[in-house]
Structure formats: structure tokens, C-alpha cells
Design brief:
It is a single chain. By secondary structure, the protein is of the alpha+beta class. The protein has one domain. 18% of the residues lie in helices and 15% in strands. The chain has helices at residues 15-19, 28-36, 40-43, 98-102; strands spanning 46-48, 63-65, 80-84, 87-90, 119-120, 123-124. The chain has a two-stranded antiparallel sheet with strand order 1-2. The protein is globular. The termini are close together.
Length: 131
């Protein structure tokens, strides 16, 4: 996605990981990748639907972050790490979920708020960070 030809800039404020919280749905391919990589450090935070009634019929795609001790949903990504005053980083950047790889907030394009996704109509607009 391109917004007025302006290249997005990440401020590393961490608001996307806090504002979106558990609203970022990991995909089955993320889960499979972490399994094949032996990333138990990630998988211990993952809750995956086992039946359609557990997650509104979306059992094949709904994977969520949970507290491994309590099994309760987390309010934000457990891999958001503070690296300085008002600056954050992803502790699993090398293998983070696909939705995170492509997410950009409004502020990255110079309008709106940090952590609020850029939307194209009613759909979340995503950008390929490798572009």
C-alpha cells in the first residue's frame, strides 16, 4: 500500500502492539513456522481454537496470545520489549506473525494516531515492509 507516495516511518513507540492487543490474529502458517523452528518460547503464549464453537466458527485461523500460567488472554503482545524511553522493539522480530510484519499505523504515514491501523474502506490496509 502507498499513502500519498510517502514512505512510512515506524516510530517504535509500541502502540500497535498495545492498541491492537490480542486483536492481531496469527495465522496457521505462523503457528506451523514456530512449530518447525522449535520456538517453544513463542508457542507457550499461543492459544489455538480446537473447535468452531470455541471461537465463533473461525477455528482454522484464530490463534491468540495468552498468559501461560493463567491461560487468560493477554492485553498486548508478550514480545513487546522496552528498549529506551518511549521506544520499543519486537523480541521475536525475526519470526513475528505475518500480520505484524505488514502492519502500519496512521502516524507512520504522517496523519492520525500512533497504533491506529491505516484502513482502506472497512478493511485493514497492510504494507509490505520489504518494499
Amino acid at each position: 500500500m502507498k499513502e500519498s507516495g510517502k514512505r512510512p516511518v515506524c516510530y517504535r513507540c509500541g502502540q500497535c502492539c498495545v492498541e491492537q492487543g490480542s486483536g492481531f490474529t496469527m495465522m496457521p502458517r505462523d503457528y506451523r513456522r514456530w512449530n518447525s523452528q522449535g520456538r517453544q518460547d513463542i508457542l507457550r503464549y499461543v492459544w489455538q481454537c480446537r473447535s468452531p464453537r470455541d471461537c465463533d466458527g473461525k477455528w482454522d485461523v484464530w490463534i491468540d496470545w495468552i498468559d501461560p500460567a493463567t491461560r487468560e488472554n493477554l492485553s498486548h503482545c508478550p514480545f513487546l520489549k522496552r528498549v529506551g524511553l518511549g521506544r520499543h522493539a519486537c523480541a521475536i522480530h525475526d519470526t513475528k506473525p505475518q500480520i505484524c510484519q505488514k502492519f502500519w499505523c496512521q502516524a507512520a504515514f504522517g496523519f492520525g494516531s500512533r497504533g491506529v491501523p491505516v484502513r482502506n474502506g472497512s478493511r485493514l490496509a497492510v504494507c509490505d515492509r520489504s518494499a
